[in-house]
Design brief:
With 418 residues, the protein is mostly helical. Helices cover 72% and strands 2% of the residues. It is globular, with a radius of gyration of 21 Å.
Length: 418
């Protein structure tokens, strides 16, 4: 139980750190008129094409029955905006990364798993590039630390991308089941622990978890042990905070590279980078911030372009839709936190994650039947999958309506605070 609790706190702090980065990037894009005009210029022709359903199915690429993964419809593009909006609302309102529901949500909308992963990564990469104004924080980055970490992350993206492409090439159904299983396990673990925390909070037995960004984190026992290992090359960092700086082996930092996780799941590597640096490597939060921003750009870029885009597994129209939706959702969500109770937000956080878990878990019986590993009636597994889809979209829609209702009902109050 203690291990599960520690793992949950680690993942939660990861999600919170990623949300902070995502909010900063989105805010910098919205406040920059040139970036917004550029984004709208990209979206305008897509929206025009959507109205006419101009893309027809082809035998080889993009067809409903084609081996290639993409089939474009207006519904899927509008769903991508809704997915981005929902992820943005979770990120801004809850203060925890909503990006982990993007891949499952795209798959629930009918996008094949490998394409959902590649598109999510490209969406993160595009957002990071557009949010260049946050690079002012890169003055805190340790270049040697960043290089060592990116070496590990870079290698990891090739491994993760190779795993997904290999499974898809062997059997598209196997690829779908692999991605759905990973998300079902992760979201199930996070969701039920979050629900447990919410129920404790409603009884007044637990306070908020405090600063998730390293403010209260000191040197852990693990970080002290890792820094005591003298395995060349040694990297010195935090010279401004500690006389002579702290030292850690470059091999240890490289081994912590999150590229494989990013490439397999389609999440930003920053999802785990911040708590890993602070709690495991013993790096100060100031140095970690700069390194985190830098690695997200390169890890997401290398994974999305080098492992997915060049093989045709990025759906650019969906990436633009998600970016549009998330920019709006993050801002609305962040403002709504000023007028709603924190305990209610934590409850929605738990329910949202659990609905994602139900959605992905509900697809597994059908995949197993199609792969002839399970002898169930196809009508039964179709009903299970449909129920999972309905539960997921109902929860997401209800959460979105609740946040927007709170936002508009308190618009006068929010304007007064501004």
């Amino acid at each position: 139980m203690s291990f599960g609790r520690s793992l949950y706190q680690f993942l939660l702090s990861s999600s919170q750190a990623y949300a902070k980065w995502d909010l900063e990037v989105s805010t910098s894009i919205i406040k920059n008129r040139k970036k917004m005009l550029f984004l709208l210029a990209l979206a305008a022709p897509i929206l025009l094409v959507c109205g006419a359903e101009a893309y027809e199915a082809h035998e080889m690429l993009g067809g409903k029955s084609a081996y290639a993964p993409a089939f474009y419809t207006t519904t899927i593009f509008l769903a991508s905006i809704a997915v981005g909006l929902a992820a943005g609302l979770i990120t801004g309102c809850i203060g925890a990364g909503g990006g982990f529901i993007i891949t499952p949500a795209l798959m629930a909308a009918g996008v094949k798993g490998i394409l959902a992963v590649g598109t999510d990564l490209f969406h993160i990469f595009a957002k990071a590039i557009m949010g260049t104004t946050v690079h002012k924080k890169l003055g805190n980055v340790s270049v040697k630390l960043a290089i060592a970490f990116l070496v590990g992350s870079g290698a990891g993206t090739f491994v993760g991308g190779a795993i997904n492409k290999g499974l898809y090439n062997a059997d598209p159904l196997l690829s779908e089941m692999f991605i759905s299983t990973i998300y079902a396990v992760l979201l199930g673990f996070l969701g039920f622990y979050a629900l447990f925390d919410f129920l404790k909070a409603t009884r007044g037995t637990q306070a908020d978890s405090g600063d998730a960004h390293g403010g209260t984190a000191g040197m852990t026992g693990l970080s002290v042990k890792l820094q005591s290992l003298n395995v060349p090359p040694m990297i010195t960092f935090d010279e401004d905070l500690v006389p002579g700086g702290r030292r850690i082996s470059g091999w240890i930092v490289a081994a912590g590279g999150v590229g494989m996780l990013a490439a397999i799941m389609g999440v930003g590597g920053g999802f785990v980078t911040f708590p890993m640096f602070v709690y495991i490597f013993g790096v100060s939060s100031m140095t970690t911030v700069g390194t985190d921003i830098l690695q997200i750009i390169f890890t997401a870029g290398l994974a999305s372009v080098g492992q997915y885009a060049i093989y045709g597994y990025v759906f650019y129209t969906l990436a633009v839709g998600m970016l549009l939706g998330s920019l709006l959702g993050i801002q609305v969500g962040a403002l709504t936190t000023k007028v709603v109770k924190g305990v209610h937000i934590r409850g929605f956080y738990a329910v949202s994650i659990i609905s994602g878990f139900i959605n992905r878990a509900a697809t597994l019986p059908k995949k197993l039947v199609e792969m002839e590993y399970l002898d169930w009636s196809m009508s039964v597994v179709n009903i299970i999958e449909e129920v999972g889809n309905v539960i997921f979209w109902v929860v997401v829609a209800f959460f979105g309506l609740w946040v927007f209702s709170k936002f508009f009902l308190n618009l006068g109050k929010l304007r007064g605070e501004a």
